[in-house]
C-alpha cells in the first residue's frame, strides 16, 4: 500500500509540475506589413554605337548590308504597349551631298514584336510588346547601292526611343 501511495503521490507531483509548466507558458504575436513599390521602368541596350556600309559595285551589290545590331529591351509597364521607335536626324550626309533616308531600310528578327521598316526623320516602329519582360532582337540595316551617289563618307544619327507607359 505504501508503494501504491508513493507511486500515486509521485505521479501527482509530476502531473502538477507539468500543469504548472503549461500554465507558465506565455505566447505573443505581432504582424508585419510588407510594402513594395513597383513602377514602370525601361532599359534599352544596343551592342554597337555605329554601323558601317562597305563600298561595293552597285551592279554586283544593289544593296549593302551592315552587320546585324543586337537590340535588348527590358520593360515593366503599367498599361498599354511598350514601343521602340527609330528616327534619323536627317538624310545621310557627306558635305553638301545627301542620300535619301528612303534608301536606308532594315530587317528585324528575334523575339516576336520586332519588325522591319524604312528610315525616316519621324519615329518608325522597330518593336512593340503587349507585356512586361525582357525582349531580344536583331536589326540589320540595308542601304540601296546606287551609281548616282556622289563619292564621300556619309553619316546620319539615328535615335532609338523606348516608351513604357
Question: Can you offer a commentary on this structure?
Answer:
The protein has one domain: Immunoglobulin-like. The chain contains 1 helix and 11 strands. The protein has one helix at residues 2-24, and strands spanning 41-46, 63-65, 69-76, 82-88, 92-94, 97-99, 104-110, 117-118, 124-129, 133-144, 158-163. The strands form 3 sheets. Strands 1, 2, 3, 7, 8 and 10 form a 6-stranded antiparallel beta sheet that branches. The N and C termini lie far apart (88 Å). Mean pLDDT is 90; it is low at 8-13.
List strands and helices in order, with pairings.
Elements: H1 2-24, E1 41-46, E2 63-65, E3 69-76, E4 82-88, E5 92-94, E6 97-99, E7 104-110, E8 117-118, E9 124-129, E10 133-144, E11 158-163
Antiparallel strand pairs: 1-3, 2-10, 3-10, 4-9, 4-11, 5-6, 7-8, 7-10
From the structure above, extract its key features.
1 helix; mainly beta; 165 residues; six-stranded antiparallel sheet; Immunoglobulin-like; 11 strands; three-stranded antiparallel sheet
Task: Please report the first level of CATH classification, the CATH class.
Answer: Mainly Beta
Straight-line N-to-C gap: 88 Å
Radius of gyration: 36 Å
Mean pLDDT: 90
Share of β-strand residues: 35-45%
**Low-confidence parts lasting 5 or more residues at pLDDT below 50?**
8-13
User: Residue share in helices?
Assistant: 10-25%
Order of helices and strands: HEEEEEEEEEEE
